[in-house]
Every structure is written in C-alpha cells, then in structure tokens.
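Deliverable D2.4 — example input (structure tokens):
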C-alpha cells in the first residue's frame, strides 16, 4: 500500500516536471466516448461504434460517405482528434477534421487528408477561412504512415494565434494580424467541430487524375479521443464568457516557443509541397498575412 502511494506521488511529480519542461505544449486531452460531445451529421448508418463509442469508424462506399459534429459550439480552445486514415488504396478519398462557424461570412480551420494509391503518400492540406474568405491552402507530406496507427491532429485557437499540430509538432501558425496587417481573425463566431469521409476524386489525388477504385470499398477511417477542451458558447454568442481565464489564454500559449519554431521550420523545409503564400501564379500580390508566414 505504502509503496503504491509512493509510486503515485513519484508519478505525479514526474508529470509536473514534464508539464514544466513543455510549458507551451497543449494539454493532453482526456479520453471520453463519442456520445458525450458528438452526434452524426449525415448517413448515420455509415458510422460504426467500437468499444462503447471510444472508437468510431466512418465508412465510405459508392452510395455515400458520412460525418459527425459536436453538439456544442466553441469560441477558442484546444481541439484534437486521434485519427487512423483509410489504408491501402485510398486514392480519391478525403478524410477531414475541421472547425467551422455556421453563418455566411464564416470562419473555418481545416485539416484535410487526401488519399492516394497504395504505397503513395497522403497529403495533409490545411486551410483557414476568416469572414468567408479562404484560399489559404498549405500542403505537406507526413513523416509517418497515417494509416498504420492513430496520430493526434490538433488546433490551438486563442485570441493570438491558430496553431496546427500533428502529434504535438507544430506544422502551421496563423497569427492574429488584425491589428497590424488588417487581416480578419476569427474571434467572435463560435465554431463546431466536424469530421467526415467522402469521395472527392474530382480533385483530391494528383489533382483529380487518380479516381476512386470502388472495388476496394468500403473505405474506413477511424477516430478516437472525443474530448473537447474549449469555451462553449451558443452559436450566436460574440464572445466567450470565460475569455482570458482559460489555460490556452495564458502568456505561454500566445506564441510558439523557440523549440516549437525550430520544429515548424524543419517541417517546412522537409515536408512542404504547397504554400499559397509562395504561389505567384495564383497571388500576384502576396496576401498580407504571408509577411508573418515568411518569418517562420
Ligand atoms: C486580435 O484580433 C482582435 C479582433 O480582430 C483584435 O481586437 C485584437 O486586438 C487582436 N489581438 C492581438 C493580440 O493582435
Ligand atoms: C500521391 O502520390 C503521387 C506520386 O508519388 C504524388 O505526386 C502525390 O502528391 C501524392 N498525393 C496525392 C494526394 O496526390
């Protein structure tokens, strides 16, 4: 008994140390079942529940894909999902995890995984919409096979920045530049979280040249980790009631730290395949927020 108690104390101390050393890493989500925070969005019969809803599998076949969304809306927080993507020949399929407000001038923060032929790499595309304006795609290859195991994909969103993480490695930062560069920033429209799997063989794989091979259907993507660490607000709310008081509002989460910027730069150098900020054909003039993207 005494030994057990001591071990517990030692483990707690180690945990605190770990937390200090990684002061600016987002908190780890706790594990809750799907039903606590989420509901199906469409094609309910294509969602399979495993282990009492701790794992959910989305099925895509010729008839339809499917998707789910949070019950609530959130204004700022840390939003993560553990995902295992469609394995084997996934060309033409897109699996997504994103946040979006529900109005016409909507805000949106996207992770989209573009499938590929067996053995060919997935592309992770990210995008940010503010006030209905998107066209901010960035694309990377991942440094692991996302179909073999679960990996975590998360977004830290506060008044200062939107940071995208893959397993705690930052892959993109969109800073609040509304003050200095006049770029709209999502700060007053609560968003829901969405996940989905659908057929997008008109554009997803090699620009739409590789079509979905339906002889491999159904395509299955798996999800875990349905905790939502956000400030819940009604869809019409303009602000979060606890604004400024939550962990993600604190100074250490207002920017990435030096080690995180080093990792981000490494991801940039080694894995980037597309960045709207450097696409001269598309944007003759560099979009204003790209001034900060370049500093990375
Ligand atoms: C972030 O954006 C809001 C609204 O656009 C603005 O009022 C605020 O000053 C900005 N904060 C920072 C740190 O730039
Ligand atoms: C699919 O594989 C091809 C060949 O390796 C590659 O050019 C492409 O970027 C990959 N990903 C997608 C989604 O097209």
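Example output (designed residues):
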């Amino acid at each position: 008994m005494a030994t057990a108690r001591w071990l517990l104390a030692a483990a707690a101390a180690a945990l605190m140390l770990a937390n200090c050393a990684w002061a600016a890493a987002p908190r780890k989500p706790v594990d809750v079942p799907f039903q606590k925070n989420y509901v199906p969005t469409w094609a309910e019969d294509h969602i399979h529940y495993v282990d009492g809803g701790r794992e959910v599998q989305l099925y895509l076949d010729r008839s339809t894909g499917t998707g789910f969304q949070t019950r609530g809306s959130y204004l700022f927080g840390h939003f993560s999902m553990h995902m295992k993507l469609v394995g084997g020949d996934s060309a033409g399929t897109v699996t997504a995890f994103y946040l979006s407000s529900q109005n016409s001038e909507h805000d949106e923060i996207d992770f989209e995984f573009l499938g590929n032929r067996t053995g060919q790499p997935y592309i992770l595309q990210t995008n940010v919409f503010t006030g209905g304006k998107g066209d901010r795609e960035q694309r990377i290859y991942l440094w692991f096979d996302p179909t073999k195991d679960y990996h975590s994909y998360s977004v830290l969103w506060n008044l200062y920045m939107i940071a995208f993480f893959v397993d705690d490695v930052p892959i993109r930062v969109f800073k609040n530049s509304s003050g200095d560069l006049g770029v709209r920033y999502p700060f007053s429209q609560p968003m829901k979280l969405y996940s989905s799997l659908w057929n997008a063989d008109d554009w997803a794989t090699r620009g739409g040249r590789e079509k979905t091979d339906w002889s491999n259907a159904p395509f299955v993507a798996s999800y875990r980790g349905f905790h939502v660490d956000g400030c819940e607000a009604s869809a019409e709310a303009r602000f979060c009631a606890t604004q400024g008081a939550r962990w993600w509002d604190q100074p250490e989460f207002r920017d990435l730290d030096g080690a995180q910027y080093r990792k981000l730069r490494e991801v940039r150098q080694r894995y980037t395949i597309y960045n709207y900020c450097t696409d001269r054909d598309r944007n003759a003039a560099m979009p204003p927020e790209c001034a900060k993207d370049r500093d990375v």
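Residues 1-23 have pLDDT under 50 and may be disordered.
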